[in-house]
Design a protein that fits this description.
Distance between the termini: 41 Å
Number of strands: 7
CATH class: Alpha Beta
Helix content: 25-40%
Largest sheet: 7 strands, parallel
Order of helices and strands: EHEHEHEEEHEHH
Number of helices: 6
Radius of gyration: 17 Å
């Protein structure tokens, strides 16, 4: 499973997605140019120390990204113009989930290159979700379907277990 970010604009979202990918063991492709400097303090603040744990490949352009891709990996575009709802799409273990720019999505040539265009269904009147939230929802669903969620070591306890004591005080 891979997560690809097409020309990301907002460093905080990119940092959040890098942290997500590091925590779940998902490789990330960054298709440049980015709308920020890679060493932006806001990227680092959102990603915390997880950037060092993330498997990140930076590509100078869309053409370089396509040239270096594994042809066996499907490109699955998450888009408001998607044809298949996320929960009805069958993910494969080697899929690459593509997210567009926060300000403009992706151009038509990226839509045309995608093997599938998937939409996260929203209630009527809602336009879209934040790209980092969309990425988290899609990655979680893809990992769930393909059985690729990391297995806990048994030493961890859930957020619910940690927070339950505070809520009942």
């Amino acid at each position: 499973m891979r997560l690809a970010l097409f020309e990301p604009d907002i460093p905080q979202n990119t940092g959040t997605l890098l942290r997500l990918a590091a925590c779940f063991g998902v490789a990330v492709d960054i298709i440049e140019p980015c709308g920020f400097l890679w060493d932006d303090r806001r990227l680092k603040r959102a990603a915390l120390d997880y950037v060092a744990q993330a498997s990140v490949a930076r590509h100078a352009s869309w053409r370089r990204f396509i040239a270096g891709r594994d042809p066996a990996s499907r490109l699955v575009l998450l888009t408001t113009r998607g044809a298949v709802p996320l929960h009805e799409f069958a993910f494969a273990a080697d899929d690459t989930l593509m997210l567009g720019r926060e300000t403009a999505g992706v151009p038509d040539f990226v839509h045309e290159a995608a093997a599938a265009r998937v939409v996260i269904p929203l209630r009527p009147g809602a336009r879209s979700l934040n790209v980092a939230v969309s990425g988290a929802i899609a990655v979680a669903e893809a990992l769930r379907q393909t059985g690729q969620f990391p297995q806990p070591s048994g030493d961890e306890f859930s957020i619910a277990e940690r927070s339950s004591d505070r809520c009942n005080d």
